[in-house]
Design a protein that fits this description.
Layout lengths: L6 H18 L3 E6 L2 H4 L1 H16 L3 E6 L2 H10 L6 E2 L2 E2 L3 H25 L4 E5 L6 E5 L8 E6 L2 H8 L3 E5 L1 E3 L5 E3 L2 H12 L3 E6 L17 E3 H9 L7 H13 L4 E6 L5 H7 L5 E5 L4
Length: 289
Amino acid sequence: MHDTFTNAERAEVLTQALPYIKRYTGKIVVVKYGGNAMINEQLKQQVMEDIVLLWLIGVKIVLVHGGGPEISDLMKRLGKQAEFVDGLRVTDRETVDIVQMVLAGKINKTLVNLLEMKGGRALGISGMDGRLIEARTKDERLGYVGEVTHIHTRPILDLLEKGYIPVVSTIGCDRHGNAYNINGDTAAARIAGALQAQRLILMTDIAGILRDKEDPASLISEMTVEEAQLLMSDGIVSGGMIPKLECCIDAIHAGVKNAVIMDGRIPHSILMELLTDEGAGTWIKGEEQ
């Protein structure tokens, strides 16, 4: 397909992207990465290419990642049954060790390595490094599932200042040395808020927010915070989409300019979202739009 592009057409594409490049150069964009885009190898390569491209044009990208399927996979291999309460993983002490191994170890370093291979400069940290994510027990029934109490932005700001792409695994800690499993969307939203980011991007496995969840053509491409709250109270947004939308609203209330729930299954969806008119999901507008 790329061979059908003439050089003039390529130049035209770049020219059209220019106003968007100007809008985001030097600004912080927090990307929550997970789901299908993380499991599908081809999509993973493309997401890493997109992030390096944005980094090269001066966007200060912070990549926050989850890893639920890989955690469940390792638990199964170790003969441990995954258990969920209200969609949250029950995390005993042994499970939190596994979470730490998978998130802060394997996945984090794999992503850093990929970004470096694509020509970026990346450095991986967990929420325990520099006490980035402070947390406490969310619910006794869930064990070591954490509720974020504070974000210390210094480690991320230091890495951005030195020209790195920070790659953050969502493990929290408290002052007693406990580690906590933190929901990836929640962590990304809190980090974006603390950094006063220009944009929060949540990558998901669906097209975005649909007016009719059976009909992909009913995608709502943009909405205000008020409209988002109305859709939840009217029951149009339900199930697993509610916490994602709440994360976006919380981030905007904390000072993020706007947030996007985006289809991570589409190749180069991050570039479409940031550098074109079209976008690639549902855009939740902050106050200053």
